[in-house]
């Protein structure tokens, strides 16, 4: 199977691999997929509690190169977005950016699910904090 | 299968042949992986029909052979195609002479070098196995250790997915995460799954195939590269992280996509 240059680049130089410490404030975590399906993504966001802006994002992925690239790309895109803006990232954006073939579309779907799960987890844990462009 | 294409396990074909004979059953074996690699004897093993292919013994692609027993018992098969009645009516169509000659020559060479080559490949394979299994924790040998094709090595690496391992090694090596027959599907290996491995480990199996031209240097190189790639992917794996934290992955309620 031929991989696009962008997928290869993310695979060889994944961005933002890692995890936040359990005590780090403003973190939301999404864990999606299943080992028996061959894909598991853990995606985390760290949100500035005053501005509602995602300042950092990290991931760890069990899966093929396209799954790794999809989650790596997602962490890049999440940084600097408000959580409302982040919720607008669509799997099709990831497909287009990475030129994923049809057989790998599910990797981008899983990345979108991971983003949504991380945002939901953040909102649940920080119900009292304003979301969206709360800075100004 | 005489010998399995993914894990290299060699079946006790002689025992199956004997049993089939006792019960009056015609016995066919797919010996694609075995012919040219280990001794195959249709008389001693009670084989009535046997199929094999040229490209796995360094012959041309596009030609194979079907052995059909003529007596004791005489096996009659119905042709899949009708036509000019070539090959005693079993397979009509003009014969591709260059392919057949190439197959014949490849078989002749394989027969000459088989014993020596098998011993050499088994030694190299065992070395590759030792290099990897002695350095990588939770790596599991698939197949039966004492009844394997000499050129085959199949290992499952916990916490990493097979295709991502291949991607890390594909610049310099040609490996597979299943068999060529299933390389365009995303399904986990049904062979590994049938061994009773968890579905996750079936997604994590890599087949290393050695061949006539494999060198000791290449084995060392591939072994070290494999160790590096597995280490890198595990640092990226949420499953490895969970396992290190002492979480049993099987107890997590995964939401399948």
Task: List strands and helices in order, with pairings.
The complex is a heterodimer of chains A (136) and B (257).
Chain A: H1 5-12, E1 27-34, E2 39-47, E3 54-62, H2 65-78, H3 83-86, H4 91-98, H5 105-125
Antiparallel strand pairs in A: 1-2, 2-3
Helix pairs in contact in A: 1-2, 2-5, 4-5
Chain B: H1 13-23, E1 28-30, E2 49-53, E3 64-68, H2 97-135, E4 139-141, E5 152-157, H3 162-169, H4 190-194, H5 199-202, E6 205-209, H6 216-235, H7 238-244
Parallel strand pairs in B: 1-2
Antiparallel strand pairs in B: 2-3, 4-5, 5-6
Short characterization:
The complex is a heterodimer of chains A (136) and B (257). Helices cover 40% and strands 19% of the residues of chain A.
Task: Give structural notes.
The complex is a heterodimer of chains A (136) and B (257). Chain A is an alpha+beta fold and 136 residues long. Chain A has one domain: Sufe protein. Chain: A (Alpha-Beta Complex), CATH 3.90.1010.10. Chain A is built from 5 helices and 3 strands; from the N terminus they run αβββαααα. A 3-stranded antiparallel β-sheet of chain A has the order 1-2-3. Chain B has 257 residues and is an alpha+beta fold. Chain B has 2 domains: 13-108, Aspartate Aminotransferase, domain 2, CATH 3.40.640; 114-251, Aspartate Aminotransferase, domain 1 (Alpha-Beta Complex). A 3-stranded mixed β-sheet of chain B has the order 1-2-3, with no helix packed on it. Chains A and B meet through strand 1, strand 2, strand 3, helix 2 and helix 5 of A and helix 3 and helix 7 of B.
